[in-house]
User: What shape does this take?
Amino acid sequence: MEFRYLGNSGLKISEITYGNWLTHGSQVENDVATQCVRAALDAGISTFDTADVYANTKAETVLGEALKGERRESLEIFTKVYWPTGPAGKNDSGLSRKHILESINGSLTRLQTDYVDLYQAHRFDTETPLEETMQAFADVVRQGKALYIGVSEWTADQLRAGHALAQDLGVQLISSQPQYSMLWRVIEDEVVPASKELGVSQIVWSPIAQGVLSGKYQPGQAPPEGSRATDEKGGADMIKRFMDDDVLTRVQAIKPVADELDITMAQLAIAWVLQNDNVAAALVGASRPEQVGENVKAAGVKIPAELMAKIDDALGDVVVRDPAKTTETAPKKRPS
Ligand code: NDP
Assistant: This one.
């Protein structure tokens, strides 16, 4: 495993980070979830990402149980707040002082730890003053319940405003967690330049485009049994934006590049996001421990410029680059 600094902080994280969205507490049974976490630890992954909302808090519980007994100082545990949890009452979502200060306590209990290394705003809350949000995050840090703060799917302007307030409050906002893959490059024009200016890194989600960039979904054919595209508990709905024959055909055209590097397509997809020097980690999911074993081998892989160009040619116009799409998954109103 290789490690990178998160933003301009002294915190090092594993460049391949394990995330448990849609899997723990939902698609996969708890014993398989534990095996995936064990496989990650065995492969040198030290950084784990979850959120209070995943499987309506069950994912944090599963991760906390799987990491029990590990040396806390050797791990970096990240979680998030914003989306509705519990009964989804009027104050059970968003970034109000009340919800942030209550939610961190629930997360720490479920994760069986006294602090998280990174506490992230899962989206931007359009209904709470940013000053209130950042003051609450600063208090979480001062209480010792989180060491650093981060955000997810914020625009460049939102990042700048949040970062300035965090700086005034003396806390470190060091990360942004956006979707980023060969197929989804909307952060490149605005979020990445702003982040470089601010000393913020990206921890990027769905680097394999939820499994699509592994090449296992063939155009015109039914998805393989047990894959996310067949998961009726939520996965099938989430992956459908990529399940288009034009996209799947283009993805198959990348295989020769993976072959040339003697790596799998999933490894190529993960290595690809790590070529961007503003990316601190590829945030990878897995439904089986073998996938973790395969995916970690992307650490440290260098892709020569001519092969990066071949990937661009192969994917052509199915790649999404419009920076306005950053807010595509960010609600205009606080969700309930
Ligand atoms: P990936 O793009 O890594 O997709 C992971 C899925 O792809 C696996 O669950 C598995 O699904 C399939 N897969 C993984 N490896 C292989 C392989 N080698 N061969 C074939 N299939 C493979 O990322 P996710 O979409 O899971 O997201 C990763 C993490 O990012 C999340 O757990 C979460 O921590 C974070 N995230 C954050 C969001 C945010 O808003 N901040 C939003 C979404 C995710 P299967 O076997 O079922 O097909």
In short: The chain has one domain: 3-328. The chain has a mean pLDDT of 96.
